[in-house]
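Progress against Task 2.4 (sequence-to-structure conversion) is shown through the following example record, which the project officer requested during the mid-term review.
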Amino acid sequence: MRRWIALGVTALLLAGCAQQTTIETPTLPIAEEKTPVEPKIYLGEKPSNDFFLRQEHESFDLRPVPELSMREAIVHNAMMYLGKRDGGDCSGFVSLINYKTGTPFYQEKELSQSFDNARKSRAMFNLMSKKGNAYETRLPNLGDLVFFENTERKPAVKTKAKAKGKEKVATKQPAVQVAENITHVGIVTKVEPDGTVEFIHHSNGKNVLDYMNFNYPMLTNKDGKVINTYMKRCPSKQGAAQPQCMNIAFFVAYGTF
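Structure tokens generated for the chain above:
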């Protein structure tokens, strides 16, 4: 009897366990798989944060800009003043370009020691001659100087002049006696295969381009382009070329550096 009672109690206990509440284990969300970011590689110095902020608003061309050679820089600077009055006269214009380009032609101190008259163009020629940089028997390089002689206009000489009601006698100054009476200077801007030399200079109050070609001294135009221009006006001869008034008639030498 006791055996049957014990079996009944055990069955009741087993039935009570079947009714207990199951506790579920909470599940965590699975993180999304991210594509790995490759590190950026910079050539040279790493751009600043400001670079990336500005990059959102504008595009950049990070390729290096090629630098001009000294001769190209001289021509570039000179052509910036084409048609303008900067410089004031021929030597003043050359001095301006010399300064703007880092003084390739001369230092002012050494130029001041090369004067033998009042003309600065003559002092430039003297300095380049002394250095062995003046030449005339070959074509020039870009940026070289070009020297001319006897280009000044002969002013009308007045024997008498009145100033504030008083007569004043004008005196004529004698011409400077030098081997080459250098009176004008310009800068070579282009040399053509046919021998035409283009140069920029200050003439008649502004900076202009002119041309000369010793291979064709009797022509002003060839193959549709200008090859010779005039330094002085000549009396008209019904369109005939007059080389005695062209640039080639007053040329003395080129000057390099």
